[in-house]
Amino acid sequence: MRIGIVGLPSSGKTSLFKALIGNNIQTSFDKPNIGSVKVIDKDLYKLSEAFNPKKTTPAEITFVDIPGIPSGIENKKRRNEIFSAIRKVDALVEVIDAFSGTNDLEDAIATFDSDLILMDLDVVERRIERLQKEKRDQKKERELTILEKCKGMLENERPLSELNLSEEEINDIRSFEFFTLKPILYVVNISDADIEAKEKLKKMVKNVISDRYDAIVVPVELELELSELSEGEKEEFLSSYGLEKPILPEFIDASYDLLGYETFYTVGEDEVKAWTIKKGTNTRKAAGKIHSDIERGFIAAEVISYKDFESVDFSFKEAKTKGLLRIEGEDYIVKNKDIVHFRFNV
Ligand SMILES: Nc1nc2c(ncn2[C@@H]2O[C@H](COP(=O)(O)OP(=O)(O)OP(=O)(O)O)[C@@H](O)[C@H]2O)c(=O)[nH]1
Ligand SMILES: [Mg+2]
Fold first, then answer.
1. What is this structure's pTM?
2. Which ligand neighbours the alpha carbon of 10 most closely?
3. Backbone angles phi, psi at 236, to 5 degrees
4. Which residues line ligand 1 (CB under 6 A)?
5. How many structural domains are present in the chain?
6. CATH (domain of 234)
7. Is residue 207 domain-shared with residue 140, that is, in the same domain?
8. How do residues 191-249 score in pLDDT, each as one tens digit?
9. Same domain as 112, residue 66
10. Which residue out of 6, 10, 75, 224 has the highest number of ligand 1 atoms within 8 Å of its CB and is therefore the one to mutate?
């Protein structure tokens, strides 16, 4: 699962990528850059303090920094290259330039988003045309009906995410990898001079974008400078801009949510680890994250929520006494921040 950092040229995508991954990494300006970020998780570190393991492993998210999409017919080849890179990611972070003052925010958002809508419309129209000429079985009839719905939405310049397609319908058209069905988080890239206007800007952008999407205001350049400072220096730097804490951790959390991710933990003397699952994953499937043997030989899972575990100072013994440690079968849906211990047979 990957998040693509996308947007118009020079909106600050590579700067955001460097703030996340590290300013010292080599980046290319004409090819996508790929890197992973550890998810900063206070609860994981509390578990680590309690168990004092040899190793503590946080969850990770992979970001792909994709070059900006140039406009104009003369850039057709370049545009196609970039669109196919965007096609491959699972969710989008769309960076908007609100720092340079050279463009109207609403225009910048509309320019990029209508590109995505038109690309989807092109795919839909071509597929409909083919289907209409073909002899259609039931499956193709169904596909045609869904695509007609899609066409209407896109012609109204609205993203497909607003169609409220059922899980089944989405499955039927999954192979097209439509841009406007991907989750989007807008990053409004402001200059440090605008930090005080943060909330106002966020409101403004939320008014323009679809209510299916969220927005976060990030002073990208400032975060990039901040990422190079030592922990001690950070505080002073932040307060000189009237900021209490850096914004990147909040952005990373929002990205994690964007992908529909949740975390469960395993704990022990050797390792305390955060595992990433999609919302709605059951215990047997979650076990498979760790090892296919555990999924296959699954017997049961001992489960306790982080809150309950914290309330007994991370003592399994006390958790058992108080009846907080539960035994769950294979159909239990793992909750965010559950601590799970699997019993299995190999
Ligand atoms: N003042 C200011 N300059 C910024 C900010 N973000 C990016 N820049 C500058 O804008 C220029 C482009 O930034 P990049 O991060 O390379 O932009 P990009 O979106 O990756 O650009 P392309 O990949 O070419 O589309 C660089 O000179 C940055 O230093 C910002 O928040 N404030
Ligand atoms: Mg770039």
1. 0.89
2. 1
3. -65, -45
4. 7, 9-15, 29, 67-68, 99, 189, 191, 220-221
5. 3
6. 3.40.50.300
7. no
8. 999 998 899 999 999 999 999 999 999 999 999 999 999 988 999 999 998 888 888 98
9. no
10. 10
